[in-house]
STAS/SEC14 domain-containing protein (Acaryochloris marina), 179 residues
Amino acid sequence: MLTIDDSRWPLVSTRFQGLGTPEEMAQFYACFEEWLAKEEPFALVLQRDNAEAAEKQGKSPEAKQLRKEGIAWTKKHKPLISEYCAGVAMVPDSAKLIALWGPMVAKVTQNLYGCPGRVFSSLGEANLWATKQLGVPVQIETAAPPSLAISRLIFQQRWILVLLGILAAIGVALRLILH
């Protein structure tokens, strides 16, 4: 399954579940062409779920054909990609693949796409890097659901109250000692 979100343009997010199908890849490339047609800088954050399974499936003849088509598409569009894509941030869900891809992604992305690329272990880090690559202010939403964000806020407020109480008690104790 493929999810594409360009609602926070110029920050574009995509999420692949496992190995992309030919239809999903066609959809991805069609969207990519739309982004390039805008003739504006953008950054791409690519999430890959089930990345290790996709890596294993990537050795099949079908996957090799998809990769061959993808490389041909990329070569055709490289001049526009290098002009408008400020960077590609990859977020695989596998620590093993992060360690494997990390050292080589910057060079491969630069050579293949003509733009910077990096691998990240979290979506937040990837979004931050992509935003910095753009050099423009972009609002980044947290990946936490609202209920979790509210829980964090309540937790922080409780700790502030506890700390204020401790500080008040220390202040009272110091006044008693000094008088």
